[in-house]
Amino acid sequence: MLRTKGCQALTGFTGIVRTVRVRAVVAVLPLVVLGACASGTSSVETSATTSTAASSSGPVTDANGSTVPSSEAATLGPEVPAATVVAAAVPADQLPTATGAFGEKPTLTFPADPPPSLQRQILTEGTGPEVAAGDWLVTNYLGQVWNGTVFDNSYDRNATSAFQIGVGKVVPGWDVGLTGVKVGSRVLLSLPPADGYGSTGQASAGITGTDTLVFVIDVVQAIGPNQGGQTDATPQPAPANAPEVTGDLGVKPTLTIPAGLAEPTAASTTVLATGTGPAVTDGSVLAQYVAVSWDGQPIGATWPDASADPTTQVGAGPQQIQIAAGSPFEGLVGVPVGSRVLVQLPAAAASATSGGQATPAIAAVLDIVAQTG
């Protein structure tokens, strides 16, 4: 799968456990203790270089110096700003046609020349809620260069992919074109270079800086920043000699380390409330969490608050967590989606990867919102 954002800095619990577990670093990156890089990296995720080149939206001026909305400006060239709204629709015969129904891999047929603006065509409209900026979308999709190569698709992988929309984590055309779409819809997006990868393109995918890209996207699910686990999950007996967790299900819990509680000597996962969703498998999940170090210091929380910054992981809603054998979260395998769990991790000894400092044990409460990969 083409990686264009990548894990430039390990984000989340897994990242800190693997590499940095230094309290000074945690203070700078308070949520770098949960969630790994997205397990399903994708061509629609943007790199730091690409987002600078391709998503620098801003006013466009005409010859008289008057501001013109970027969606109305000619956007076929790679150097113009990305669109901030979908352009007025061109005639249908100027857009590709797509075979297949929702959930089926499409085949695209192209007219000769691409339109010079960001275009959205709803092929079939769903009946679910409208996608809002900041939502995580669970999707199937296919991406193809105009009249050229299919460079990415999730259908052949037989697995959906999850992306956060409207906050600069994907190519600009997705941020703009998928906001407001109803869940259950099949959408065709036509992205001029400025709304895709800009003048740099993506050489590894065969995308040049002048290519128009077309995506067919099935919007399977939208998960809002405040969504937690199931409010009707079945509570389980509180574990003995463990951190205390209070608060209603489905909302932000309170996590407390009792005075004198012995630190864990091995990683453990305890189900606090059992959901009714499918059992988690290896891959990735979307989860809300609260985490503290064993000395009672807050490490981070995904649950939004008034100061949440949607462009970062700090209080910006659920984050993706990698699950694999040997990871801190391998204990989540088999736990039903919708559950609330307590994860305890032992202290880490001083090492080169931790800056030569030992770090305390960690406790975290996770609400498993969805399996995303």
Automatic annotation (TrEMBL):
- Bias category Low complexity: which stretches? 44-57
Residue spans of biased composition, Polar residues class: 63-73
EC class name: isomerase
Which Enzyme Commission number(s) are on file for it?
5.2.1.8
Q: Which GO terms describe its molecular function?
A: peptidyl-prolyl cis-trans isomerase activity
PROSITE patterns from the entry? Answer: FKBP_PPIASE
Task: Give the span(s) annotated as Disordered.
Answer: 44-75, 226-249
Per the UniProt record, the lineage of the source organism begins with: Bacteria, Bacillati, Actinomycetota, Actinomycetes, Nakamurellales
Recorded source organism is Nakamurella flavida
Residue ranges of domain PPIase FKBP-type in the record: 134-223
Q: Which keywords appear in this protein's UniProt record, sorted alphabetically?
A: Isomerase, Rotamase
User: Sorted alphabetically, which Gene3D superfamilies does this protein's record hold?
Assistant: 3.10.50.40
Asked if Isomerase is a keyword of the record, the answer is yes
SUPFAM superfamilies cross-referenced by the UniProt entry: FKBP-like
**What is a single Pfam family found in this protein's UniProt entry?**
FKBP_C
InterPro entries named in the record: FKBP-type_PPIase, PPIase_dom_sf, PPIase_FKBP_dom
Cellular component (GO) terms are: cytoplasm
- Protein name, as recorded: peptidylprolyl isomerase
What this protein catalyses is: [protein]-peptidylproline (omega=180) = [protein]-peptidylproline (omega=0)
